[in-house]
Amino acid sequence: MSRARVASLLPSLLLAAGCSREAPTREAPDADLAAAPGAAAFDAGAPPAAQGPARVRLIDPGKEPRETLRYTWRAGQHERLTMELRTAAATESAGTATPEIALPPVRIGVAIDPRSVSPGGELAYAWRVVSTQVTAAAGAAEPMADGMRAEVGAVEHLAGTATVNALGLTTSLFVDPASLPEAGTGGSGQMIEQVRQTLHDLAPPFPDEPVGRGARWEKLSRLSSKDARLSQTDSFTLLELGKTGGTIDDVLAQTAPSQPLATPGTPGAQARMDSMLASGDGKTTFDRSRLAPQTRFEGTTTMVVSSNAPPDGLVRRTMILHVGITLTGSIVGGSEAGP
After folding, report:
1. Domain residue extents for the chain
2. pTM for the predicted model, two decimal places
3. 2-330 maps to which CATH number?
4. How confident is the model at residue 189 (pLDDT cuts 50, 70, 90)?
5. Which helix (H) or strand (E) segment is 83 a member of?
């Protein structure tokens, strides 16, 4: 589920906003995931980017009656996705803790233009960012707001194409290189990654097998970029199921091994993520004919980072981030969502 990615991306946004120095986040298969149909490596440094679906495993089929869940995409049914990010962060270093502060809330609108549906049920669509907004948080330092605006400004013209199969798993996602900002003018690039990842995991995934109310399944992912690597498990529970849609609970867990981190804009600096643990819970209402669901997610990320840069020398920080994400999907007219 896309909302989970923010848990791993926000430390990078803190860096861009002037609140810290480090960065994580997205997908590279290991030996286990490489065996999954359609699995593909993702080169974070090569726009446009493409990647295959993660692995979905059924744990409990749930109560009778059961049915096989599949999306029935509709070509030409234009959609609008609105993504809202709310984050508060606190840090501790050398036994001194800073009060929790709120980062400026972010709101991004994405137009989704379905182009075709294959005989096998795979949807091909175009997408583009149509609106962005950063709201200054009460009490937040102006450099934080400026840093967040730089991050969000990098996605103002972002656009591309994607395909998603009938199980809700993205089989390809491309960012148009012409829609990317010029080098050095778009912040750290992590908000670009956030938009791409949100689209990559937008639809709740379904298992192959028939399921009923109370069914449980999990999605296993390996996430990576040029900055960091982590593992993620989404555990889904089918709470309600109707004729056209239903409601799913998603419990997230992310972990990362100790690894070096990038320190853009800080020559000679060295940084390492000593540990990272993220968890969260989301509720999603889906419609089997639509790509963009209705989702609310709340999560917490705890990351321990060591950095070594003049004049401070070696510094060890613990960062705690509380994240709230709301995804709202709606159907719009063709003239509003089209390119």
Report:
1. 2-330
2. 0.79
3. 2.30.230
4. confident
5. strand 79-93
